[in-house]
Amino acid sequence: MKFLNDRLLFLFAALFVSLSSAPLLAAQDLENAQLVHPTADSWPTYHGDYSGRRHVHFAQITPQNVGDLSLAWAYQTNQAAAIKSSPLLVDGIIYFTVPDNIWAVDARSGHMIWHYTRPSKGEHIGQRGVAIYKSWLFFATPDTHLISLNAKDGSVRWDKVIADTSKGYWSTMAPLVVKNHVIVGVGGDLDNIPGLLRSFDPDTGALQWEWDATPPASTPNATTGGMTWITGTYDPELNLLYWGTGNPTPVLNGKTRPGTDLYTCSIVAIDPDTGKLAWGFSASPHDTHDWDAVEIPVLVDGKFHGEPHKMLMQASRNGYFFVLDRTNGKSLLTTPYGPVNWALGIDKEGHPIPNPDKEPAPDGRLIAPDEGGLTNYRSPSFDPATGLFIVDAHPSYSLYFAKPADGAYGWAGADYGLWGKGVIDAIDYQTGKIRWTHDVGEGGSGAGVMTTDSGLAFTGDGHGNLLALETSTGKTLWHVGTGSPMQSSPISYELDGRQYILSSSGGVLFAWALPENRVHARTSTAAGH
Amino acid sequence: MNKVKGIRFALFLAAAAVSFSLVPSIEGPARAADQAENVPPAKTPTPKDPGADSYAQHCAICHGDQRQGILPGFPPLLGITHQMTDDKITDLIHTGKGRMPGFPSLQNGELTALMHFLTSAEPAPQLAANGGARTSLSAAGESLFLQNCAFCHGRDAEGGETGPDLTESRLVRRDRTGDDIAKVIHEGRPDNKMPAFNFSTQEIRGIIAFIHEREAEAVSRPGGRRGVSVADLQTGNVDAGKRYFNGPGGCVKCHAPSGDLAGVASRYEGLELEERMLFPRDTTSHVTVTLPSGKELSGSLAYLDEFTVAMRDSSGVYHSWAASRVRYKVHAPVEAHVDLFPKYTDADIHNLMAYLQTLH
């Protein structure tokens, strides 16, 4: 009898599932055009658009009314893992992640539509989000699989291996969809293995190409490493993909990999159709401090010293701000944006010259910045109106050690952070000068930055406050305590004529908006971002 | 049977016996075997497990034979203890939720057995680590360590990205009961950016067993000890360090070798002494707050961000104000250490260290 009951319940449950997943309205498949020109009611890629500027053209929330910003809804994951992902928004549904988990949440109300979970082995350090193509999501896992799911219900469509997790790879990143390519990278600093990018067919999951950052392990006198763990950017006109690569391995011992360790700690331009390298630029030619150059390669078209340029800007973990001509990788500007003491100067191609005396040593070396770097993976933002590149920076000092007993495998040394603090820096991209700096507390913040056309910069401090700053001056116009520092980068969208700002803190996703009765219903005039 | 297998089997029996004696409410030897399922490779499924029977009867139809779930409708239950407390799981079993029916008649022995089945871990992977005998506890701990701790502390607990070498940690060395380590895991170290983790007591015991195992391995390794030893930090010159202390370092403005620093080299050594020398983390700053009325209060700074300032007064009472409503002045002598960072050469640091090590 009991058994029969269970069977009946199962039938009811199955019926419920099939009803709830039957579409009432055919949701539009996300087309490539929307990835190139996202609409205001969407945030269809990790950065919101291909440029990585994390800037929106909305102007409903302004410096004048931001004081009225209030909570529209909050979503509790009830998980210990902090949200480090940038949410995606397509067709009114938000998709966000922590390791092993994806949630689909209604962008208007914050209620859950579905939740997918897949326990896995592998490194659970973070998860930055999913990618979408048509109605399929793409999700990278701690055990280095790429999983395609149905965006409607979270059901798995296919599951492919990106790299062999038993060799020491894991994956945390949001894949990038370019045309009919799903491009995904890997992490893995504990072993001497090459970093790689792989492109998969979005429909079949078939491997299209692989680009290796470094030669195969145990190539004599060569480096390994160059992990590709943060989502790159894309220029549709040049048809080039821009990606940052991570540190060489062994990490703190550079003796087995003399000279410039190509292509580790580099910014690379890759043809998304073939995986062929167009050019590469070494941000740290011979890194011994774990300073990945994976920070967002931000694409800006504009004038540099009076001449029009297609530029690429990166505030790199090693403490230098780079402006490159992204057609050829030539340097326009290299300048430190905080305390940096590991380089002898800058060579004529714009590369910092590593100081051999600042390589880790048996009795220790005082190094600025610390291993977390002058900035890390959270996104900066470029504001076109002011020409400011706004980045969450971390002035810091640390001690680096390495001795023969540490060997030449994996970490191969030890380092200890001594002191650091958080500042939001607004860098003038023409000169590299800091236009303003805003203190966000001892230790540092970890929040990303997003700017708006109305002149606001949203970010967070090290105490758990979400901040709205005036972009031109860095002055705080609004704040709210969220209980824990933000570990992600804000996004924004406009639905039903109401602009939302999304932030996260701990395991909670927050949506902020002006009070409903103050927002006059109006047709969205925003032109996307 | 080779020797390694023999040792493993003996450990398996020992672990089984221990866990059985710790769980008196669970009947039958089958439970004991299940407790020890993390012992590789001796794990064999026990068909007579009442918890497994109960699961198969009530839960498997939706959540899958192996607790793997049937997506998208039915979630996996593997690792459920990371998401819910035992009480919450029991509640859910009794009352159901959404499309899941409640099972209020599941009580007592059957409930206990089912709960045990649901909260038992997946088999831990076999790890090459020290190539031989492992306890089931440390093997389970290693699996959790690799997923949650290895990124920062290294796969062998000897340090990695941002996290210190745990085998050289004073806290680890002194904490034979595991209580202090457990506290750090549970509460995190917000000042050092270490997050808090929500593990069960059993899981924490596993992680601690693994850390102690790595510590024992590191200590027993002859010569070539990795990490930073006291001997590594002896390259400085005492006289030059003393000159720096009294001269360009400006240390004498706040410190005296016969005063606050008397015996400092007996209290701390090696890397810990050097880190404290460069930036002591546990100092107190003072704050003086002027209220709108003109009244002045002072005490130790308890909190400060852009919007709120707080202090503890001399009797330990906590006060806070909106920063915009008061005037305040922070006195943080430790900032002198920050001001020195851009001025030091590496030799200054090594010399200063040599001098401080004479202050026994």
Provide a descriptive summary of the structure in words:
The complex is a heterodimer of chains A (529) and B (360). Helices cover 5% and strands 40% of the residues of chain A. By secondary structure, chain A is mainly β. Chain A is globular and about 65 Å long. Chain B has 360 residues and is α+β, with helices and mostly antiparallel strands. Helices cover 42% and strands 8% of the residues of chain B. Chain B has helices spanning 3-22, 29-35, 50-58, 60-63, 86-95, 108-119, 136-148, 150-153, 170-174, 179-187, 201-220, 238-246, 264-267, 270-278, 335-340, 346-356; strands spanning 286-290, 296-304, 308-312, 318-322, 327-331. In chain B, strand 3 (308-312) and strand 4 form a beta hairpin. Chain B is flat.
Which labels suit this protein?
heterodimer; A: 529 residues; mainly beta; six-stranded antiparallel sheet; five-stranded mixed sheet; 40% strand; globular; disordered C terminus; B: 360 residues; alpha+beta; five-stranded antiparallel sheet; 16 helices; 8% strand; disordered N terminus
